[in-house]
Amino acid sequence: MAHQDGTVPAHDAGGRAPMAVVTAVIVREGRLLVVSKQAAPDVFYLPGGKPDPGESPLETLARELDEELGVEPLEPRFLTDVEAVAALEGVPMRLTVFEARVDGEPRPGAELADLRWISGHEGDLRFSPALRDHVLPLLRRRGTLAA
């Protein structure tokens, strides 16, 4: 679990490494693509997911974007690693974030409840802790999102 200051230990109390998750920052016209899952339709995340055994981060990214949105990442570039608490599971998570364009129009796949293009200033949407506390501030500092 997270420390009181919000940081996440490298390993949990049982000595387990954080849950690995690979996600994509996809921005069009200054707006970020976020998705919600049927398991928690009121919480928005970056698209992506957990790697399968032996899968590289870029392989995970390609598989997850295909499964969730029916698109392929184009020119993915590593953006950042984020350590946070997973919104659904409540366990330490290491989020590997790539920036990418995609090869078509994203459409929500089976496990998704919704997708939206956001400015990051929406007061009526609930974002995952990693998105709210780490990725959105980074994108704002870089001027990636529309004001």
Automatic annotation (TrEMBL):
It comes from the Bacteria. Signal peptide: none annotated. The keyword Magnesium applies. Pfam families: NUDIX (PF00293). The keyword Hydrolase applies. Its cofactor is Mg(2+). InterPro entries: NUDIX_hydrolase-like_dom_sf, NUDIX_hydrolase_CS, NUDIX_hydrolase_dom. Keywords: Hydrolase, Magnesium. Residues 17-140 form the Nudix hydrolase domain. PANTHER family: GDP-MANNOSE MANNOSYL HYDROLASE (PTHR43046:SF12). This is NUDIX domain-containing protein.
